[in-house]
Amino acid sequence: MKFEHIAGAVIHDLKNQLQALLDYEQEALSHIPKRYHHHLEPILQRTNRLKNDTLQMVSLFRLEQKSAFPMDDAWPHDTAADAIESTQLQFPTIQFHNEIGEDCQGFYNESLLNLALITMITNSAQAGATHIHISADDSQGLSICVEDNGHGFEDSILNGEQETTKTEGTGMGLFFIRLIAEAHKTGEEIGRVSYGNRSGGGASVCIHLP
Amino acid sequence: MINLEETLKDKRILIIDDLVEARSSLKKMITMLGASQPDSATDGREAMELILQKDYDIVLSDYNLGKGKDGQQVLEEARYCNRLRASSLFILVTGENAVDMVMGALEYEPDNYITKPFTLNMLRERLIRIITIKERLAGVDQAIDNDDTDGAIQLAEALLASDKKMRMPLTRVLGKLYIRQQRYNEAIRVYSALLNQRSVSWARLGQAICMHFLGDSRGALAIIQQTLVAHPLYVQCYDWSAIILNSLGKPLEAQKQLEKAVAISPKAVLRQMELGRIAYANEDYPVAEAAFEAAIRLGRNSCYKTSKNYLQFTQSVRHLLGSAQGREQRTRADKVFRAIEELRQDYAGQDSVMFESSIAEGKTYVALKDDDKARQSAKRAEEVLQRMKEPSAEQQLQMTEAYIDTGQHVKAKKMLRTLRDSGLSGPSLQQLDTLETNLNQVVIREHAAALNSTGVGAYEKGDYANAVIAFDEAASYDEAGVSVLLNAIQAKLSLIENTQIDVDQLRDCYRYFQRVGKIGDNDERFERYERLKSTFMRLKRAAGM
Lengths: 210, 545
Known about the structure:
The complex is a heterodimer.
Chain A: H1 3-31, H2 37-64, E1 72-74, H3 76-88, E2 95-98, E3 106-108, H4 110-126, E4 131-137, E5 142-148, H5 155-158, H6 173-182, E6 185-186, E7 189-190, E8 192-197, E9 203-209
Parallel strand pairs in A: 2-4
Antiparallel strand pairs in A: 1-3, 4-5, 5-9, 6-7, 8-9
Helix pairs in contact in A: 1-2, 3-4, 4-6
Chain B: H1 4-9, E1 13-16, H2 20-32, E2 39-41, H3 44-53, E3 58-62, H4 71-80, E4 89-94, H5 99-104, E5 112-115, H6 120-136, H7 138-145, H8 149-162, H9 167-180, H10 184-197, H11 201-213, H12 217-230, H13 235-247, H14 251-264, H15 269-281, H16 285-299, H17 307-321, H18 326-346, H19 351-367, H20 371-387, H21 393-405, H22 409-421, H23 426-460, H24 464-475, H25 482-498, H26 503-516, H27 526-542
Parallel strand pairs in B: 1-2, 1-3, 3-4, 4-5
Helix pairs in contact in B: 3-4, 7-8, 8-9, 9-10, 9-11, 10-11, 11-12, 12-13, 13-14, 14-15, 15-16, 15-17, 16-17, 17-18, 17-19, 18-19, 19-20, 19-21, 20-21, 21-22, 21-23, 22-23, 23-24, 23-25, 24-25, 25-26, 25-27, 26-27
């Protein structure tokens, strides 16, 4: 057995264990008076972050193994709402704005897109954002954009000299998002990622799916 | 969009999950979302019992249900026995890694799926989407439930033209309806239109199926192969490859494809039955035995249970009984007898099944060379046959065969005569002829054996004249073996030595030697043959021939 397969299996189990841990913690929280919640919340936050990280690893592993990620009808509004729900806990001070219309529809692998959005939100949070806006456009293919009011990308990243400047986290956010976009193909067309700084400050990252 | 609480309020809902925590959590969630008193089941068996009793509007089942059936099989069985209307919702709850298998289903596909893990909010969102789509399809589903396929097609086509966002679910249903009406070109049209925009495996398989029915089986196989490259676990692709290969006259390759499908998804009864049938036709009895055995095991307590599986199982095993020995043979035979016992209990009122089980039992005893038991089974079959009002030609032929197998030649002959007088035709007539030939051969063989032993008796008493008469008659049949011929020669030579030279008898000996032909020096009869030959030569010389 190859090391990478063992690693893959371990991470998969880790993900399941962390999800169970998260469920137990939330269950515990619901039985404990509110004034004690601040004791448990840091644990919950860390667990959540670890779960998201392992989820990322599992998907990365499967993407590298060229596993099939089936695509289906999906609704960006719901996907974004799920991503917000699973990051909100970790970043309680951020205000999220899900601006995607309920009728907006796409054709993608929901788990992958959900992960991409979680990664994009985490990036924004680490850049000091307090407001995150998520929008989408399904008039041609599908584009989903995350815009924040953080410190934006540094020039070295924008002109391609560096992949990351972060000291916190894995530093592979953009790489991962790009992998996810590229896993979405229709005929000759392939998904891509665009990013830049907004004129009023903050970053903007978009995923474009064919 | 719909109001979820209002919609769920008066729906009959069934929740299926083998894990107690998951089940109660889902039940709690769905109740919080507005459902009142949903039922729950812990496994596929319990679920089917409930589905057979009650009409459910919504079934939420986990894909993985532990040891027994999985959620997909509950769905298939419910649809197979018409216990799930088109307008009711079947939703599979699945981990991300099984989504692939769930989405691919073309014929018995769930209305939708929910990926685990999910929170209350995620479940709410998802259910709203799923029910909203279902309500848009309500007219179409209603028409399907009323068996109005034309109406359903018309409605679905109109919706497809007006609502691009419903393209996927509408194409699924339209493709299926067109295939049902054998309008393959129309089905290909809708599948292709979708495939131009969306790369979905079920549409590609649908397209391939239609191409096969339109005569382009090779093209269909190529598309299926391509789909399998991207989706190696897509079992239905193997099922259809098998169907197409079989139609192209390649049953061995077809069997291989089905074996792959069974390896991926071993719990599907219908697939095991199909594999059993094709392996049996290919005379691959070990595979047929395993497949029918699995079909029996999986089909117990399900609406797939049929007496045919049991009988086909016994047939497959019987072919293996001859080659097996000792304990292995005993184990095999016991399996057959258990299957027959189960048939006798579960289908007690059905004469045709009772008849066939006794026939199967008898044949098994014949293979085990247990003549007494074989005769008993034939007797049981005979009793059932006699109380049947109008036994079919097939059944009477089976009875005849049992008579022959158990040495009841008079009865066999009588039944054959009745059957011939009734004017059979086609394969039944062919079978009748074969049985008649068999019977004749058996009778002759037995008659010859009797004559031979009469001859031996006379010879031992020194009554060579009568021995010659008996052996001559036994040797008069073309089927007479070497021993009979050598006996006849020996009797004649002894008669001549004890009386006088008889040229006619010596001529007969010469003819018998010719019929015996050459006997090799490692044959156990070689010495006797040589001895007789030299006596014959000596007497021939003495006769001056």
